[in-house]
């Protein structure tokens, strides 16, 4: 162990923080029902495919729930989301067809359809009980802080931050949410899959012995691009294509790989103390692809000495795989991919086991569990691991961009602010295209993590 490793591990052990996997959700296998006839009013902030999918799943929960307000930066997004919910259309980037809801559940008159950079605040103040945050991730810490300050329960999609200031903001808001006894859900839906939960419990109980090595993969074939529109500002273009800009998504290693990182953090019930990685941009050529990498390979080290070797990429024609392998002194576990399905969840070695329980849709179950906690007034706070798992991705990005070993504590304190200085249609982002329409790409060995 070198000096940096010793310092990182010592700092981790000496400070008092909430462990990455301290909250292990236990799904309520059924539907939550309201006490009496009380209606739970929902506000959706971020009306894209995932946001519309999230509110659909929340509306399917038993009991009285209704959509009360919609908010987005763009008018077309609000109109499209409303059409999907009322006419049963299928979103381009959604995961499943959406049902059609009637007037008893969709109560969003024009005066509660908000557009613009302040739309989130108006939706929060509209009288909703539960706010669903599903904008590009860069906005998440700001929106979360506003919702909690206003005393609203929150469901926020992953990832929850894209940089160090965002992580620090999340942790402060988590404390305030706890003080106010607000219920906080995070879109890391695998923590609501019975198969996954049972596997994690066995691992934590020692079925694999001491965990020594973990492998995680999120290798896919590509992603979408939205072409520039007439009269569209640079900031608006970057927001519509947020996954290709660090301030918008945190890069693919944060925006998508967070599922796998969270799974590994949960298995060992801690977050890494350092990361060492590499990555680059192999085929994502041209300005349309912004400034992010299309592949990352990162080695994470945990306080226990366990190692996580992670791969994520979106390059067509390559091996595609999503899932994790956990190896210990007594055996090995195979976990399902980001969908949290039951197929393939098993342990081999001294304590062989394969999941044979009920099948549950984890995207719906996470809303069942959150709304049940609200109705029953039970403690429920997923914001802690939402923050640490998201920042695990940020740590990995800083390592792969720089080619340096990056310590968690240094990254939290010194990591740069990636957000634009101003959020308005005419604002200038930090990253701008050159005369040829191309953005500056991080160069390992030149890029500095802080």
Topology summary:
Blueprint: H1 3-14, E1 40-45, H2 49-59, E2 65-72, H3 75-87, E3 113-115, H4 119-124, E4 130-133, H5 140-149, E5 153-156, H6 164-179, E6 184-186, H7 194-204, E7 211-220, H8 234-240, H9 246-249, H10 252-255, H11 258-268, E8 274-280, E9 295-301, E10 307-314, E11 321-328, E12 331-335, E13 346-349, E14 353-354, H12 362-376, H13 383-402, E15 405-407, H14 408-414
Parallel strand pairs: 1-2, 1-4, 2-3, 4-5, 5-6, 7-10
Antiparallel strand pairs: 7-11, 8-9, 8-15, 9-10, 11-12, 12-13, 13-14
Describe this entry's structure for a reader.
By secondary structure, this protein is an alpha/beta fold. It folds into 2 domains: 18-190 and 365-387, NAD(P)-binding Rossmann-like Domain (Rossmann fold, 3-Layer(aba) Sandwich), CATH 3.40.50; 193-360 and 390-409, 2-Layer Sandwich (Dihydrodipicolinate Reductase, domain 2), CATH 3.30.360.10. It is built from 14 helices and 15 strands. The protein has helices at 3-14, 49-59, 75-87, 119-124, 140-149, 164-179, 194-204, 234-240, 246-249, 252-255, 258-268, 362-376, 383-402, 408-414, and strands at 40-45, 65-72, 113-115, 130-133, 153-156, 184-186, 211-220, 274-280, 295-301, 307-314, 321-328, 331-335, 346-349, 353-354, 405-407. It has a 9-stranded mixed sheet with strand order 14-13-12-11-7-10-9-8-15, sandwiched between helices. A 6-stranded parallel sheet has the order 3-2-1-4-5-6, sandwiched between helices. It is globular. Mean pLDDT is 90; it is low at 9-23 and 29-36.
């Amino acid at each position: 162990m070198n000096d940096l490793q010793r310092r990182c591990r010592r700092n981790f052990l000496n400070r008092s923080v909430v462990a990455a996997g301290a909250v292990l959700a236990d799904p309520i296998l059924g539907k939550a029902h309201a006490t009496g006839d009380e209606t739970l009013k929902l506000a959706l902030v971020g009306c894209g495919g995932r946001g519309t999918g999230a509110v659909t799943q929340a509306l399917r929960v038993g009991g009285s729930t209704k959509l009360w307000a919609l908010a987005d930066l763009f008018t077309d997004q609000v109109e499209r989301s409303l059409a999907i919910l009322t006419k049963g259309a299928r979103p381009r980037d959604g995961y499943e067809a959406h049902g059609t809801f009637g007037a008893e559940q969709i109560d969003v008159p024009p005066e509660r359809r908000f557009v613009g950079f302040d739309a989130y605040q108006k939706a929060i103040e509209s009288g909703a009980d539960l706010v669903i945050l599903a904008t590009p991730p860069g906005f998440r810490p700001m929106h979360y802080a506003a919702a909690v300050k206003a005393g609203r329960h929150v469901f926020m999609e992953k990832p929850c931050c894209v940089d160090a200031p965002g992580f620090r903001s999340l942790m402060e808001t988590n404390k305030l949410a706890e003080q106010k006894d607000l219920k906080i859900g995070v879109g890391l839906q695998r923590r609501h899959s019975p198969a996954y939960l049972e596997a994690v419990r066995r691992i934590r109980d020692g079925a694999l012995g001491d965990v020594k090595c973990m492998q995680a993969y999120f290798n896919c074939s590509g992603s979408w691009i939205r072409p520039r529109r007439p009269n569209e500002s640079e900031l608006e273009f970057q927001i519509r294509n947020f996954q290709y800009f660090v301030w918008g998504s945190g890069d693919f290693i944060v925006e998508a790989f967070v599922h796998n990182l969270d799974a590994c953090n949960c298995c060992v019930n801690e977050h890494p103390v350092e990361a060492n990685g590499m990555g680059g941009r192999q085929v994502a050529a041209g300005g349309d692809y912004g400034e992010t990498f299309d592949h990352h390979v990162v080695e994470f080290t945990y306080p226990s000495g366990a190692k996580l070797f992670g791969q994520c990429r979106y390059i067509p024609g390559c091996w595609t795989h999503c899932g994790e392998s956990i190896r210990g002194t007594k055996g090995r576990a195979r976990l399902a991919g980001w969908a949290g399905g039951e197929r393939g969840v098993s342990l081999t070695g001294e304590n062989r086991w394969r999941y044979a329980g009920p099948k549950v849709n984890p995207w719906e179950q996470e809303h069942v569990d959150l709304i049940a906690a609200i109705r029953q007034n039970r403690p429920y706070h997923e914001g802690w691991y939402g923050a640490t798992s998201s920042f695990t991705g940020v740590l990995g990005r800083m390592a792969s961009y720089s080619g340096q070993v990056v310590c968690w504590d240094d990254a939290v304190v010194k990591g740069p602010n990636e957000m634009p200085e101003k959020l308005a249609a005419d604002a200038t982002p930090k990253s701008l295209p050159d005369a040829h329409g191309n953005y500056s790409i991080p160069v390992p060995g030149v890029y500095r993590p802080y």
